[in-house]
Specification:
The complex is a heterotrimer of chains A (192), B (244) and C (557). With 192 residues, chain A is an all-alpha fold. Chain A has a single domain, classed as Cytochrome c oxidase, subunit III, four-helix bundle (Four Helix Bundle (Hemerythrin (Met), subunit A)), CATH 1.20.120. Helix content of chain A is 78%, strand content 0%. Chains in contact: A-B, A-C, B-C.
Chain lengths: 192, 244, 557
């Protein structure tokens, strides 16, 4: 079924494009989800002893490398946005795939880290610290995967010079995913 | 409230007073608002008043009709808050020195009560353990240490106006002082599984003589030795060790 | 796409996989009505067991203790998440927001369709939970762990998981829907429609969506944690593993209390649309209503722990939450005063829609006042988890999800289906519903004050509560409930028969001002042949110096 665009989709009473508004509202609702999880983590950790010893087993290096990878990929998506604004679709396409590559390195890194931890018996059921560790990182990794999939779809639109504005939208989302990690990294890896 | 349900604890009257106060203040505004609403519905019906007036409700002389009652509501709110905090402080936030201490353990679906026994010390050999039957003396201040073995329960004695949830992993301390002899219901007031509706117990509030007679009537095998304190975090209302 | 082309679509495309906001709105409405019947039937089954313990209930059979708990749990869950939310927010929001702000659809039609599909799936999952081994979840709609997290305690290993998945899916559906409502209102308004020209109902649905979005996040996280506890025996809520069962209560009520206002605000919005039309009177203090709604929504985020006064939280915390809770009476009282003031010097016509709207005010006042007993910590020690609480929140939720919704259905039915509903049947339905409603819940205030605690399948176990006069009150409530359910038959008959046989409604049967009444009934695909522009606010009734007593928003002069 062909899909006619209702007039509603093109109106902009606020002056902000509707897509951008929606992305901000999505991020708003995501912030409270991660916020709820992290506040629960902080409250439980503050009022129970013994968590530091559990946290000592996390590998700060893995976390630090992933932070670097994710920040770099955020830079690529900014450059992709610039290229899309300038109408250089091939350059934007390449930069989007570099961003996706950053996400992939992040996930591979994470997979290696987790398999090491799980083989050492540091599993989800070991203690509540590890439950939070896997839940928070897992939820974040799902967002990384979702971002990569959406970027892949957008990249082919960009090649055809369609929906170029969506590069900016996915960029905003990717920055958000990045910032969530910036919160997770100190709370799970550095606080020991 | 005492016409609906008896009072049998020292703070029951305070809580009933709170209920009465809210009933009076809230009831006043309730009847004022209902009165005006019904009067408007009656006086401005279509057959009586075929043509409506134009009132925007945004001029000061119009909004004052909203704002004045609204300030009066604030005053009532402050009175209610003040009494609520004061009575709450007396019931839940302070612990008067106890004459005796009992241990209450909730489980699916029964209440286990540990009375301190003749030496008035919990955790000793002469403790008296009972199931679904709590015996206390009238006019003595009791502390209770409330625990749960499995899920959430709630220790509720309506005639005391007392309710406290039992949380697994915590020992929650509270107090009561019975003021009237008799037998009354103890309920579990928190959903605790299939037989939640059957998790009933009775409290026997006795005169000192009757209480002694009850203690003497027990056979030795009813006196428990299993009253070990488990290593769980203790929660004292006046200290508040758990913040969440 | 023109109307003629639209006619060529198959029924499948037109009614099942439509992206048209009106079709999606009606899909939500019918799903919600079906779930309401189911929730009502559940209440019949468990009330019968309570009034006549151990007797076979007609149409159900013997209600065992486990079944009783499953029925009350799912009655609550269904009525909140699968009736109040979809009907008040999704059905009315989808059907009315584009019509009221003068555009042809939502800004994300396909996300809108996805939202309904996820919602429908969630309802299917919930219903499926009744047919798994162990039966449906029975740990109360609040699902406190460890009862909800550990199948050894609940004895419903699959029911608990399905219940949680259903609720989580429902949240996702409403997050998607909410984003759509908010962005649609922000961006897709008709030319000339300024902030204060937006009908109150649209504001209310949008504010409710924002409050929902801001409060549900932590519970989504909490639901993931609870799911892991259920499936993998992780210890988020297990004190033996360093977790804390009270944590769930915070996450649940941080959402659960704002949720009350999430459904209250749209109900207030329905009443705000109906009162001016049938009193031919401008809404008193538009801005006051808007600001008190925002204040209520904001304040509602800071009152949650009044559900936990006796749950084992730090008793000092109760003081803070007593203050915030009692203070929320201020914006709510102000909003009710404003509605009453709207009637002043009006010219009131008691149509079925107006009767339901007025009954909302009458009953909600009692619901609101009885809430103070529970918000004040000292009196809540006694009332917590008694039938007083139950009667209180039914005196808020029934006005919200039943009375206001009926008001809305009687009012917008002509727009939805192009025909008028029968007024006589409407009045029979109204009086039958409102009188039986009071007969159900007024006795329960009393039994609650006398000590009846909630979720008890048989009071014979409690000698103080098993007194004959108490049981008489329970029987009165139960019989009144049966009559209340029977009085819905005239409504359903009216609803179905008027669809084909009602009088033709025309564009604007009520002489109302808002934009939905300026197009055909029912509106064609695309809503208007030419989209309207707006020149004034929505409540300009009986303006002095005009011959007609209404002044539609799209009329130039």
């Amino acid at each position: 079924m062909s899909f006619p665009q209702p007039i509603a989709t093109n109106r902009s009473a606020t002056g902000i494009p509707t897509g951008k508004l929606a992305v901000w509202w999505v991020i708003g609702s995501e912030i409270v989800i991660f916020g709820g999880l992290l506040v629960s983590y902080i409250m439980l950790r503050l009022f129970h002893s013994g968590w530091d010893a559990e946290a000592a087993h996390t590998n700060t290096w893995f976390g630090a490398i992933n932070t670097f990878v994710l920040l770099t990929s955020s830079l690529f998506v900014v450059l992709a946005h610039q290229a899309a604004e300038a109408g250089e679709e091939k350059k934007a396409f390449r930069l989007i795939w570099l961003t996706i590559g950053g996400g992939a390195i992040f996930l591979i890194n994470k997979a290696i880290e987790w398999s090491g931890e799980i083989s050492h018996g540091l599993v989800m059921t070991k203690s509540v610290f590890w439950s939070f560790y896997y839940t928070a990182c897992g939820l974040h990794a799902l967002h990384v995967i979702a971002g990569m999939v959406i970027m892949a779809i957008i990249s082919f639109d960009v090649l055809k010079k369609q929906h170029m504005n969506r590069v900016e939208l996915i960029g905003i989302y990717w920055h958000f995913v990045d910032i969530v990690w910036i919160f997770l990294f100190p709370m799970l890896y550095i606080a020991k | 409230m005492q016409f609906i349900i008896e009072r049998a604890s020292s703070f029951a009257a305070d809580i009933d007073f709170m209920i009465l106060l809210i009933a009076l203040l809230g009831g006043f505004w309730f009847f004022v608002a209902q009165g005006i609403l019904w009067y408007f519905m009656f006086a401005y019906r279509r057959s009586k008043n075929p043509k409506a007036a134009y009132v925007s409700g945004e001029k000061p002389e119009e909004t004052k009709w909203i704002h004045w009652p609204h300030y009066a509501v604030i005053v009532c709110d402050i009175v209610i808050i003040a009494f609520a905090l004061k009575i709450w402080f007396g019931v839940k936030q302070t612990l008067p020195p106890p004459d005796s201490t009992i241990r209450i353990v909730a489980q699916q679906w029964a209440w286990k009560f540990y009375h301190p026994g003749p030496d008035n010390q919990l955790g000793t050999a002469d403790d008296i353990g009972t199931v679904d039957e709590l015996h206390v003396e009238v006019n003595k201040t009791y502390h209770f240490k409330l625990e749960s073995d499995d899920v959430l329960h709630s220790f509720s004695v309506p005639v005391f106006r007392l309710k406290q949830d039992a949380v697994p992993g915590r020992i929650i301390t509270g107090w009561f002082k019975p003021t009237k002899t008799g037998q009354f219901d103890i309920q579990c007031a928190e959903m605790c599984g299939i037989a939640h509706g059957a998790m009933a117990a009775r409290i026997h509030i006795e005169s000192p003589e009757d209480h002694q007679a009850w203690v003497k009537s027990l056979r030795p095998d009813q006196v428990t030795k299993q009253n070990q304190q488990e290593s769980t975090t203790e929660q004292n209302p006046s200290k508040g060790t758990e913040a969440i | 796409m023109s109307h003629a082309e639209h006619a060529h679509q198959s029924i499948w495309q037109k009614y099942i996989f439509s992206t048209d906001h009106k079709v999606i709105g009606l899909q939500y409405l019918f799903t919600g009505m079906f779930m309401a019947l189911l929730g009502g039937f559940f209440s019949y089954a468990f009330r019968m067991q309570m009034a006549f313990p151990g007797k076979d209930v007609p149409l159900w059979g013997l209600v065992t203790a486990g079944e009783y708990n499953a029925l009350i749990t799912n009655h609550g869950t269904i009525m909140i998440f699968w009736v109040a939310m979809p009907v008040l927010i999704a059905a009315l929001g989808n059907f009315l927001i584009p019509l009221m702000i003068g555009c042809d659809d939502m800004v994300f039609p396909r996300i809108n369709r996805l939202s309904f599909q996820i919602f429908f799936l969630s309802a299917v999952v919930l219903l499926a939970s009744f047919f798994v081994p162990g039966g449906a979840f029975a740990g109360a709609w609040t699902a406190y762990p460890p009862l909800s997290s550990n199948p050894d305690y609940s004895l419903t290993p699959l029911g608990s998981v399905l219940w949680l998945i259903a609720v989580a899916l429902e949240f996702v559906a409403f997050l998607l829907g909410g984003i759509n409502f908010i962005t649609t209102m922000m961006n897709a308004r008709a030319p000339g429609m300024k902030m204060y020209d937006i009908p109150i109902l649209v504001w209310m649905i949008v504010i409710a969506s924002i409050v929902f979005m801001a409060s549900v996040g932590p519970l989504v996280a909490g639901a993931v944690m609870l799911l892991f506890d259920q499936l993998f025996a992780v210890g988020f809520y297990n004190p033996a593993k360093g977790g804390d069962p009270i944590l769930w209560q915070h996450l649940f009520w941080f959402f659960g209390h704002p949720e009350v206002y999430v459904v209250l605000l749209p109900a207030m919005g329905i009443v705000a649309e109906i009162l001016p039309v049938f009193a031919r009177k401008k809404l008193f203090g538009y801005k006051t209503i808007l600001y008190t709604a925002i204040a209520t929504g904001t304040l509602s985020m800071f009152v949650w722990a009044h559900h936990q006064f006796v749950a084992g939280i730090d008793p000092r915390m109760a003081n803070v939450f007593t203050i915030t809770t009692v203070l929320i009476s201020i914006p709510i009282a102000e909003m009710v005063f404003v509605y009453i003031a709207t009637l002043y010097k009006g010219s009131i016509e008691f149509s079925s829609a107006m009767l339901f709207a007025l009954s909302f005010l009458v009953t909600f006042l009692l619901g609101g006042v009885t809430g103070i007993f529970l918000g004040a910590s000292a009196s809540d020690i006694y009332f917590h988890d008694t039938y007083f609480v139950l009667a209180h929140f039914h005196f808020t939720f029934v006005p919200i999800a039943i009375l206001a919704v009926f008001a809305g259905i009687y009012y917008w039915y002509p727009k939805m289906f192009g025909r008028m509903m029968n007024e006589t049947l409407g009045k029979i339905h109204f009086w039958g519903t409102i009188i039986t409603f009071h007969l159900i819940f007024l006795p329960l205030f009393y039994t609650g004050a006398a000590g009846d605690h909630r979720r008890i399948y048989n009071y014979d176990n409690f000698p103080d509560l098993a007194k004959p006069y108490m049981n008489d009150l329970r029987i009165i409530a139960t019989i009144a409930l049966i009559f209340m359910l029977l009085f819905q038959i005239p409504f359903l008959y009216n609803f179905v028969v008027s669809w084909k046989k009602g009088a033709k409604a025309g564009k604007n049967p009520w002489n109302a001002n808002t934009l939905e009444w300026t197009t055909e009934s029912p509106p064609p695909h695309g809503n208007w042949k030419e989209l309207p522009s707006v020149y004034r606010g929505p409540y300009e009734y009986s303006v002095p110096g005009r011959a007609s007593d209404f002044w539609p928003q799209n009329e130039k002069a």
